[in-house]
Design brief:
This is Enoyl reductase (ER) domain-containing protein. InterPro entries: ADH-like_C, ADH-like_N, ER, GroES-like_sf, NAD(P)-bd_dom_sf, Zn-ADH-like_protein. Residues 46-359 form the Enoyl reductase (ER) domain. With 364 residues, the protein is α/β, with parallel strands linked by helices. It is built from twelve helices and 15 strands. It has helices spanning 7-31, 76-83, 150-153, 158-170, 187-198, 211-219, 233-240, 255-263, 286-292, 304-307, 309-324, 341-349, and strands at residues 36-41, 50-55, 64-74, 100-107, 119-122, 133-137, 141-143, 178-181, 203-208, 224-227, 246-251, 265-273, 295-298, 332-337, 356-360. α4 (158-170) packs across α5 and α4 packs across α11 (309-324). The N and C termini lie far apart (44 Å).
Length: 364
């Protein structure tokens, strides 16, 4: 009896072979004879970043992976770090950047599970992503989901893992509940809306500033939007929830918006504070906490890397699994070249961005 291999199986095999060959050629072309690479360097706190030549390591240390970076996500924490306003204040000079996607260029002894040319996604300990190469601890390198481009992968960890941790572990969001998300058109806000809708099957109310951003939220599946430029949060929440309030608040703004959200939470609701984009850390009216019997908890996702590494890694693997299953997809608002890094920072600071802003170092 003759056995025939289906054409689609043969095609998959051919594609894998071509990808592997292409990846190997990429590594040879990018690494052969190179001693330096380009990176955005902070030479003085508060000054614009300088794109400079940085030396490549002569040898990759044990337990490390050298990644040829294709794209790096820009997070607000990166900007604050360069300005000297973040919780962590590194000594200059340093290369900022906390997440990247690319291909394995080389690795040291003891590293298993990777080969040169593999598509990977990584968080290099809060630094060093804004460059053509990045040296990373192997346990912080993950296979890139096949469902995403490397540019999309660059926006797939920090925002999504933060939102996953906030909604699952901290807020304990349940199917059918209503969640109010502020700064909903930003990277973490859109990630939270994506997870709430497509993982938890919750009802989402997104708060943002401007009709264009509200339109984007609706395109991304958010059921209700509130434009804080023209609408009162409390009035709209009352109307949407028939006066019951929301089960969960995820706030990233602080200031008066936090207070309005607290007053909009339901009896025994849960408020999660993730950041203070307004620059105004709110003073909590604790009488509202008493009257509503609600809880307020904070989430600093990066702190879990040392305080509770198991939960930290689980938040990453959870979102990567959801990406691989096609449940989630990051919104990349705009890409900039490495040389345009300061323009990218200004773009975010001027509140022009939606979703994740990404630096692109190489074509895929």
């Amino acid at each position: 009896m003759a056995f025939h291999t289906p054409p689609e199986v043969l095609l998959r095999s051919v594609i894998r072979t071509l990808r592997s060959s292409s990846a190997q050629n990429f590594v040879k072309q990018e690494c052969a004879g190179r001693r330096f690479y380009r990176a955005a360097v902070c030479t003085k706190i508060g000054d614009p970043l300088q794109v400079q030549d940085v030396p490549l390591p002569d040898k990759v240390p044990d337990g490390k992976v050298l990644i040829a970076g294709h794209a790096a996500g820009i997070n607000f924490a990166d900007i604050l770090t360069v300005q000297g306003k973040y919780q962590v204040r590194p000594r200059t000079p340093f290369v900022p950047g906390a997440e990247l996607a690319g291909r394995v260029a080389d690795f040291g002894a003891g590293v298993e599970g990777f080969k040169k040319g593999d598509r990977v996604i990584s968080i290099p300990g809060g630094m060093n992503a804004f460059g053509e190469f990045c040296l990373v601890d192997a346990h912080m390198v993950f296979p890139a989901p096949d469902t995403l481009t490397l540019v999309e992968c660059a926006g797939a960890i920090i925002s999504y893992a933060t939102a996953m941790l906030a909604l699952s572990r901290t807020a304990q969001l349940k199917e059918g509940e209503t969640v109010l998300i502020t700064a909903a058109a930003g990277a973490t806000g859109l990630a939270a809306a994506d997870i709430a809708r497509n993982v938890f099957r919750a009802q989402v109310i997104g708060v943002c500033g401007g009709a264009d951003k509200c339109a984007l939220l609706r395109e991304r599946g958010v059921q209700h939007t509130i434009d804080y430029h023209t609408e009162e949060i409390r009035d709209r929440v009352k109307k949407i929830t028939d006066g019951n309030g929301v089960d969960v608040v995820m706030d990233q703004v602080g200031g008066n918006i936090f207070t309005d959200c607290l007053k909009s939470v339901a009896f025994e609701g849960r408020v999660v504070t993730v950041g203070y984009a307004s620059g105004d850390i709110p003073k909590v009216p604790v009488n509202q906490v008493l009257l509503k019997s609600c809880s307020i908890r904070g989430v600093w996702w990066g702190n879990y890397a040392t305080r509770n590494p198991q939960v930290f890694i689980q938040s990453i693997t959870d979102v990567l699994a959801a990406f691989s299953q096609g449940k989630l997809r990051p919104h990349i608002g705009r890409t900039f070249s490495l040389e345009e890094v300061n323009a990218a920072f200004d773009f975010i600071l001027n509140r022009q961005s939606t979703g994740k802003v990404v630096l692109k170092m190489r074509d895929e």
